[in-house]
Amino acid sequence: MSEIFKKNIILTFSLIAFLLLFLKNILPFIYYPGENILLTIINQSSGSNYLPIIKSYSDFNLSPLYDLENSLDNKNLAFPYLALFIHSISLKIFGPVSFIFLEFFASIIFLIVIYRILLLLNFNKLFSILMSSFFFILPEIFSEINYLINTNITNILNDSFKSFYNIRLPRPLITNLYFFIFTLILLKIHIDKNYS
Fold first, then answer.
1. What average pLDDT does this structure show over 2-23?
2. Which of 25, 48, 99, 117 has the most CB atoms less than 10 A away?
3. DSSP state, 33?
4. In the chain, which ranges are continuous DSSP H helix?
């Protein structure tokens, strides 16, 4: 059985991501069965302040001013287009449920990328699977430690590990994926002797 999981790493990380995200996404539907899915996502999302921008981008309004026309001279606002692009397109195509699927797929990609980085650093497969899963839940562990033991050091560690990776939209859910994939590519280029 463990050989199947070692060989089919995408299945393994899909199962791990499903198990890690299942309770977070299913409990609101159990406690509030009649609630609209969009309201559930808004209440669950720790990056809900980006949701109006994502909605505007999904409607192809690339310069949302939100009633700021009179207070701005040049009528231009800067927003993170690339970080919100994936969410905007998926919202347009699949609707509000796309946020749940994006969390799932982004978690799988994170686990696979960290796994590949650890393999390139000459760790064995089982250790790489366990460590990539550990890195995924590490921010939640430090959040709970900070809740139980609230000191200056635990606050700093909690903030540091929350910015490492978690499912807060769009940072670090998407933006840190860009960073980790770039790190993987650089590591592959460095290790591969064909590049000079």
1. 80
2. 99
3. T
4. 2-7, 9-31, 37-44, 51-58, 81-94, 98-120, 125-148, 152-162, 175-191
